[in-house]
Amino acid sequence: MSTGVERLFDELGHFGRFQACLYFAAVFQATSCGIHYLASVFLVETPKFLCDAPWNVTNVLYGNHSGNSLEDIWSFYKPGNGAVVVQMINGEQWELSPCLKVQRHDPVNFRYEFHGNRSVESCGHYVFDHSQVKQSIVTDWDLVCEKEWLAKLSQPTFMLGVLFGALVFGDIADRVGRRPILMATSLCQFVFGITVAFTGNYYFFVVMRFLLAMVSSGYLVVVFVYVTEYTGNKVRTWTSMHVHAAFAVGVMMVALVGYLVRVWWLYQIILTLSTCPFLLYCWKFPETPFYLIAKGRHEEAQELLDTIAHFNGLEPKLKVSDLLEDGGKTLMKGTQKDENMQEEPEKKLSLLDMFGSWKMAGRSATCWAIWFIGSLGYYVFSLGSVNLGGNQYVNLFLAGAVELPSYLIGCYAMDRVGRRRTCAPALLLSGVACMLTIAVPQDIEFLAIILSMTGKFAITIAFGLIYLYTCELYPTVIRSLAVGSGSMMCRVGSVVAPFCVYLAGIWIYLPQLIVGILAFIIGVWTLFLPETLGEPLISTLEEAHALGTKFSNKKTKEDGMQMNVTDSKA
Q1: pLDDT of res. 429
Q2: What per-residue confidence (pLDDT) applies to 390?
Q3: Which of 352, 418, 523, 532 could pair with 427 in a Cys bridge, judged by C-beta atoms 3.0 to 4.6 Å apart?
């Protein structure tokens, strides 16, 4: 039998009709986070391109291929394998490359090889291959050659917005509540998402994408806390992990819409509109009972408990006073104070409270490390998957689909062997798979792919469960802050990941070596975290400090669910 606020799930159901409706409604909007996080894959896609010819083209040569226009040779052209030779309507001959063009002087005939004098000019404009990409921000604003870094900067800038949003909205949600943040971030996702499609220049585009990243990250952080505080420990593993499944569905939607729509602004509008129905009902979301009781809003909490009971087909017998440590006495003392007694101000908690003792500091550092390596490994494996070849849309769709079985297996393991004994082996397996990849000869690609996918599969399990694990390791008063700061470290990993992939230019297996060593070390650290399987959600810092000790159960009963009613002792 659970104690404290957790008891409401034993009385009202761990995943009754009321919780199920809220859960699926909230998770539906989580698909938009997966959409916006990966949308830039096709927003900033760079097709094949060449310097624009100064006059109308009449003949084209590329190796053994010829034609009357550049469209005739795009299917054969490969960047870095020589220039494209064109003949103008006025007889001039030019050699076109991606970032420069060369004029031939006094050519005798029109041939691919030329040994005469040439003059080099810079590109004024560019011509793009529109067979695959009709329109992207790269083709609209010529973000190639000397402006190529601007296109590459758009995704790290987005991830920087995700980093800030995770920390800012996590802290705000602990102060003003989960419900206002869910509503505000959802509305802003829609507004900023549509605005991105109508930006007229690159810099406005980046600013709006930065704001979109902040609110998307804010929603994703708070929705994990929201669904955790509405579901009992019997189903909390599955409900938490399947928020990630909604994110993966968003990734698959990006691949599908990207395949069907090749114009970037229309593609952005369709992706944004796909989750707009959430705005029609999100304003009906209630605040969580954990937050209401923690803030002393007992009347609202009682109304919510009665509503849950009615919706689940139960008689509303449960009282808020039953969920507190001392029952009705504590509640009465908290509500019937002496008028002459000054109310004790509420203590403001901050990030420093996560490091209030050596034990909590070690726990927080390990959690942050898991968040970091989970994101770093996830994106290093994902970015490396482009070497598989084939259709890029199919590859992205499969990259989202492959996450689904990892979450299912992760859920099963978490409920059977525990959070710690699932997370630690997953990190260790990922580290071993990465380091074994180094020993595979480069000509045995099949084995290297299997090991790489094994590493991604394992890191996805650890990456998926850390949200729930963090929620269970920290009390209500700093839970959103803990998840938010952890998500901040996650975004640091995602920002670092592209630079880690660039190290393959030094040694092809250097990215895997870095991820493998870090994953293995952090996997060992994870073994020292407390197990939370079957434990009720904690509410105070004292309970958090006692978690994992042999006195933790006794401590939970003694400390109960104080929820900011310590002023009653006056």
Answers
A1: 92
A2: 57
A3: 523
pLDDT of residue 566: 33
Query: pLDDT averaged over the chain?
Result: 79
CA 363, CA 59: separation in Å to the nearest integer?
A: 68
How many alpha carbons lie under 13 Å from residue 483 in its C-beta half-sphere? Answer: 32
- Cβ-proximal residues to 565 (8 Å cutoff; 6+ apart), any chain: 296, 324, 330, 331, 333, 334
CA dihedral 358, 359, 361, 364 (to 10 degrees): 170
Q: Could you tell me how many residues make up the chain?
A: 570
Residue located via tokens 């329109």: 135
Phi-psi region of 436 (alpha: psi -120 to 50; beta: other; left: phi over 0): alpha
C-alpha to C-alpha distance for 383 and 274, rounded to whole angstroms: 26
- pLDDT recorded at residue 195: 93
Q: Give the confidence band of 4 by pLDDT, cuts at 50, 70, 90.
A: low
3-state secondary structure (DSSP) of residue 95:
strand
Residue 570 CA to chain centroid, in angstroms?
Answer: 46
The mean-pLDDT minimum among 172-181, 265-274, 414-423, 536-545 falls in 536-545
Per-residue buried b or exposed e for 153-181, using 16+ beta carbons within 10 Å of the residue's own CB: ebbebbbbbbbbbbbbbbbbbbeebbbeb
**Mapping DSSP to helix (H, G, I), strand (E, B) and coil, where does residue 447 land?**
helix
Cα→Cα distances 402→23, 255, 460, Å: 23, 14, 10
The total of other beta-carbon atoms located within 10 Å of residue 388's CB is 15
**DSSP sequence for 194-235:** HHHHT--SHHHHHHHHHHHHHHHHHHHHHHHHHHHTTS-TTT
- Residues of the chain by 3-state class (helix, strand, coil), percent to 5: 65, 5, 30
Output the CA–CA distances (angstroms, integers) from residue 134 to 84, 130, 240, 283, in the order listed: 21, 5, 39, 39
pLDDT band at 206 (very low <50, low <70, confident <90, very high): very high
CB 433 within 8 A of CB 453: no
What lies within 8 Å, CB to CB, of 222 at 6+ separation is 169, 170, 173, 178, 181, 182, 185, 480
Neighbours of 115 (CB within 10 A): 5
- How large a percentage of the chain has pLDDT more than 70? 87
Q: Which residues pair with 50 in a beta bridge?
A: 127
Q: Which residue has the higher pLDDT, 146 or 281?
A: 146
Point out the least confidently predicted range of 38-52, 143-157, 480-494: 480-494
